[in-house]
Amino acid sequence: MELRQLRYFVAIVDHGSLSRAARALHVAQPALTQQIRQLEEELGAQLLHRSAQGVVSTDAGKTFHEHAQAILKQVEDARSAVAQSADKPAGTVALGIPQSVSNVLALPMLTAVRTSYPDISLQITEELTGNLTEQLKSGRINLAVLFDDGQLGAFAGAPLVEEDMMFITRAGSRFAPKGRSIALRKAAAVPMILPGLQHGVRPRIESIVRRAGLSLSQVIDINSVAILKSALLADIGATILPVAPMMSEIEHGELQAFPLNGAAISRTVVLCWSRNIPLTNAGNALKNLVMTVSGELCASGRWPGARSLHGA
């Protein structure tokens, strides 16, 4: 198996066509076809379905595509590590950010990188935390913002912030409490709109509810922050989440947030990287920049409900 075969295969999948991949790679299409055939023979599996409309990955091809991307990424990182200098980091760094954090962290990071490290190309991936964990393990991303659920031992990490969670409803909702806060017992009895179990915040909420001797009466699983907001605005339930991803709607008076009485719920946000795959100079520079930016966001109030743990 050769690196060029991996590059060819990834290009074909990404372009969805042998002819388009051949043009992008500046390789004759028959030569490209031959290399993929040799790769399939070596692996003993068909990787692509070919048709007049183009090509799509088989199940085996989808699995191999993930590994091929990770291998090519690590090869590129190795080249960058050798070529770049410590005083002027350069290269590509992939940072994974959960949906519930991207609203507050993504744009400040892009701005900070352009200002501090113009030779670094930052690639931001927004995903569910479960997906980010798998991508970090495989080396497809270099850094990931994750939530400490007690299962981050496979990674090296640095705590970023402690983020409070609140009871959030539509403004004037029938589920809103009469006062300025709500007891966890009453919150648990309301129909809850929550991310799925693969999302880092959900196990944390359910664990605290169980510890209080309670259970959630009804849960609607929604794994999209945008759709979750729409469901809140439609008043089909309430949620328990950090306020950061809802801040725009709260400031415009569309949603309202209430502290929880009796059992404070928070989550620890951690910046993680692989213990087995070394970070390049650019990766280390970005690691430090994420910690600096998150601290500045907390200090300025631009990360609402969050307390910096940098240096903790």
Automatic annotation (TrEMBL):
PROSITE patterns: HTH_LYSR. GO terms for molecular function: DNA binding; DNA-binding transcription factor activity. Keywords: Activator, DNA-binding, Transcription, Transcription regulation. Residues 1-58 form the HTH lysR-type domain. InterPro entries: LysR_HTH_N, LysR_subst-bd, WH-like_DNA-bd_sf, WH_DNA-bd_sf. GO terms for biological process: regulation of DNA-templated transcription initiation. The keyword Phosphoprotein does not apply. Signal peptide: none annotated. Belongs to the LysR transcriptional regulatory family. This is LysR family transcriptional regulator. It comes from Noviherbaspirillum galbum.
